[in-house]
Each structure stands twice: as structure tokens, then as C-alpha cells.
Amino acid sequence: MKESDATKGDDLVKNSSLYREFQAEREEIMRHKWLESEKAGFDIGFERALTDWIVKHRSKWRRGRQAQSQPS
Questions:
Q1: What pLDDT is attached to residue 17?
Q2: Dist. CA 8–CA 63, nearest whole Å
Q3: Which of 10, 49, 51, 66 could form a disulfide with 33 if both were Cys (CB 3.0 to 4.6 A apart)?
Q4: CA dist 25 to 11, 36, 46, 61, 69, Å?
Q5: Contact assessment for residue 52 and residue 30, using Cβ atoms and an 8 Å cutoff
Q6: From residue 63, how far is each of 20, 45, 53, 70 by CA, in Å?
Q7: DSSP letters along 4-65, please?
Q8: Is the pLDDT of residue 19 over 60?
């Protein structure tokens, strides 16, 4: 595979809605990790932050994202 083909493939993936959703969700998890680590006084780690965010926030966050993406 030529390098330009690989670059085009990377661009296609990065511009896909699925990838954008993954990135947005990851940003929320990292924000949650930071906030919860600050509260705890130590780094809680990604796994703990991920699990906690999924249990406490993911459903509401996704509903909000879906509501934003629907045309008025």
C-alpha cells in the first residue's frame, strides 16, 4: 500500500461519524477521570474512570448527543 493510500484511509476513519463519537466519548471519560482524581486526591486511573462514567453518565450523555444531532 502506498503512503498516500494509508493517509487517505486515516483521513476517512478520522472523518467518520463513528470515530468522532468515539473521540467525543473518550474526551468525556478523560474529563471525568480528571475531576474524580481531583476529588480523590490521587489519580484514579483510566479503568476506574471509564467504569464509573459508563455507570453514572453514559446514557444521559448519549441522549444529549443524539438530541444535538437531530435536525430541528
A1: 87
A2: 32
A3: 49
A4: 19, 16, 13, 9, 15
A5: no
A6: 16, 26, 14, 11
A7: HHHHHHHHHHHTSHHHHHHHHHHHHHHHHHHHHHHHHTS---HHHHHHHHHHHTHHHHHHHH
A8: yes
Is the model's pTM score more than 0.85? no
Return the pLDDT at 2. Answer: 59
How high is the mean pLDDT of the chain? Answer: 88
Residue closest to 52 by CA, chosen among 71, 34, 70, 72: 34
What mean pLDDT do residues 14-31 have? 91
CA distance 5 to 67: 35
pLDDT of residue 69: 78
Residue 46, all three cell numbers: 483510566
